Amino acid sequence: MEKEFWHQRWRQGQIGFHSDQVHWALTRHWASLAHAQGEPVLVPLSGKSLDMHWLRDHGHPVHGIELDPIAVRDFFAEWGRQPQALDTVTTELAAYRADDVVLWQGDFFDYRPAQTFTAFYDRAALIALPPEMRAAYIGHLRRCLKAGAGGLLVTLEYDQKQKEGPPFSVLPEEASGLQGFISEVLERRDVLAESAKFKNRGIRSLHETVYRLRAV
Length: 216
Description:
Low-confidence stretches: none
Order of helices and strands: HHEHEHEEEEHEHEHE
Radius of gyration: 17 Å
Number of domains: 1
Number of helices: 7
Helix content: 25-40%
Shape: globular
CATH superfamily: Vaccinia Virus protein VP39
Strand order of the largest sheet: 3-4-5-2-1-6-7-9-8
Structural class: alpha/beta
Distance between the termini: 28 Å
Mean pLDDT: 95
Number of strands: 9
Largest sheet: 9 strands, mixed
CATH class: Alpha Beta
């Protein structure tokens, strides 16, 4: 999938993947990871997600990685904060901080953390990628984490033949076999009734699944 696809979506305001609410999986299941307050959380392909505010409000410094500059700009503007541009050791990404949130603007695959993370959150990253890119994404995510790091992964399951992604369907057999991770299903919900764009495409079954992942 080309980067320009996502830049165009943000330029045109076609961001149906953005939610104006904190995701239910985060509020229901984050505590099961037993992360201590103060542990930084990695949020790949973050967009301008309100979930980052929730994590910050619960004591976690947040490092979001986002490709598009419009998303980064809007995140801070809608928060009412003027971010500080940070010096970085790479020319591939720019970094902006306000309070305990740092957004890195650039390609996630170019991100090299100064210190690996013990906590991460993926609500919309894996499902944003086509199958041929997902192994590389999981591999790079794992390299950004310490052994034993824990996080939440949220996936969608539907008949991919009925609708082109993104978001893409990620079946349980793939999510349970991610290289470098041990996964456990925490909850699976039927979310078709609240997803008009899927129903309008003729999708008859749509489930959202929350996994607890541990890096090994």
